[in-house]
Amino acid sequence: MSDEFRFSEEHSNDIAAVVADLKTRLPDLPLFLVGTSRGTVSAASLAVKLSQQVAGVVLTSTMFRETGSRAKVSGLA
Q1: Does the residue 49 lie in any domain?
Q2: Residue 8, in any domain of the structure
């Protein structure tokens, strides 16, 4: 999975649908996103986009991505 996809609207929409379903099934529990290695790029990006729907994010074995003028997609803000 590329960083471009990890930052894409398609990926965000897919995970938002999963989050919405989990919140319907388990309405009284906090929902955390968890990412390991390259998945930390997805989890961190999605935590920003879905900040109102998730209680937090857990990043393990975090990957860093290229930033600045050489980056193919914008970073996390």
Answers
A1: yes
A2: yes
Find the domain containing 7 and state its range: 3-66
38 CB-contact burial (10 Å; exposed 0-12 / middle 13-18 / buried 19+): middle
Tell me, yes or no, whether 34 lies in a domain. yes
- pTM of the model as a whole: 0.74
Q: pLDDT band for position 64 (50/70/90)?
A: low
> CA dist 73 to 30, 44, 49, 56, 66, Å?
30, 14, 15, 23, 9
The 10s digit of each residue's pLDDT in 35-56 is 998 888 899 999 999 999 999 9
Number of Cβ within 10 Å of residue 47's Cβ equals 20
* Structural domain contains residue 77: no
Question: Per DSSP, what are the bridge partners of residue 23?
Answer: none
